[in-house]
Amino acid sequence: MDHPQCHSLPQDLSDSLKEATMEVHTQAENAEFMRNFQKGQVTRKGFKLVMASLYHVYVALEEEIERNKDDPVFAPLYFPEELHRRAALEQDMAFWYGPRWQEAVPYTAATHRYVDRLQQVGRREPELLVAHAYTRYLGDLSGGQILKKIVQKALDLPSSGEGLAFFTFPNIASANKFKQLYRSRMNTLEMTPEVRQKVIEEAKTAFLLNIQLFEELQELLTQDPEDQRPSQTAGLHPHASSQVQGEDLLAAPYPVTVTVAVALYGMPTSLPLVLATPSP
């Protein structure tokens, strides 16, 4: 009797992506920073830096999604009213950085690398946007409300949700049902085996980008214990004048495996890998 190799990859793309990112998901959950964050040990400055980086990332992601919204490789996953975060993050930037936030929001080198990768994908290989949208949006829907409550308590924020608009999805009645819909749409995308594998590897790349970004922010926080404005912190630059310093570690073609990512950059040590980690 023949025994086909049916376990090399799950049939559905959503299952394949979950399986491919499982190791880095576990690493993120066990990171010291995450354990501390779940205990409510989060600083105002650290959270501002996290939100600033997310702002730049989502602006880039959603610009590329808009560019490719009619492309059949991405169109089934186009849910701007339900998912897009740019407007919510602009509200949050005004709360955290004031009325002239566009001049004050920091833009780190690792954030710039993330943005560059999103732009490269959107303009050259739009099918890989599937991996980035999956990684970000399903993660937001999975853990957002829990993280929102932790931050509200730790930073004594208003119960009205000011400063935390990012975590609220007013046009999604049920996160679980919407995630089911999103995964079912993903699983209908027509891909060759080669493209499918590239999407899976790009999901790992998305986690690598997050690891680099938030390890950089963690290092900046460690180097600068004083609670000063993030735009004055060494290594941070306002958006208008930001330049990427040093070698662009993500300029080379992919794939990059999780094992290599952990070996090169160490244990993931911060919050937004959970923001970017879809639930099982």
Automatic annotation (TrEMBL):
Record carries keyword Oxidoreductase: yes
One Pfam family it belongs to: Heme_oxygenase
Signal sequence extent: none
Membrane spanning stretches: none
Sequence ranges of Polar residues compositional bias: 230-242
CDD domains given in the database record: HemeO
UniProtKB keywords: Endoplasmic reticulum, Heme, Iron, Metal-binding, Oxidoreductase
Subcellular location, record wording: Endoplasmic reticulum membrane
UniProt key word Oxidoreductase: yes
EC number: 1.14.14.18
EC class name: oxidoreductase
GO terms (BP aspect): heme catabolic process; heme oxidation; response to oxidative stress
Disordered as annotated region, ranges: 223-242
Stored InterPro entries: Haem_Oase, Haem_Oase-like, Haem_Oase-like_multi-hlx, Haem_oxygenase_CS
Membrane topology: Single-pass type IV membrane protein
GO terms, molecular function: heme binding; heme oxygenase (decyclizing) activity; metal ion binding
Domain of life, per lineage: Eukaryota
Reactions catalysed: heme b + 3 reduced [NADPH--hemoprotein reductase] + 3 O2 = biliverdin IXalpha + CO + Fe(2+) + 3 oxidized [NADPH--hemoprotein reductase] + 3 H2O + H(+)
PROSITE patterns with a match to the protein in the record: HEME_OXYGENASE
GO cellular component: endoplasmic reticulum membrane
Family the UniProt entry places it in: Belongs to the heme oxygenase family.
Quaternary data: Homodimer and higher order homooligomer. Oligomerization is crucial for its stability and function in the endoplasmic reticulum. Interacts with FLVCR2; this interaction is potentiated in the presence of heme.
Job of this protein: Catalyzes the oxidative cleavage of heme at the alpha-methene bridge carbon, released as carbon monoxide (CO), to generate biliverdin IXalpha, while releasing the central heme iron chelate as ferrous iron.
Name of the protein: Heme oxygenase 1
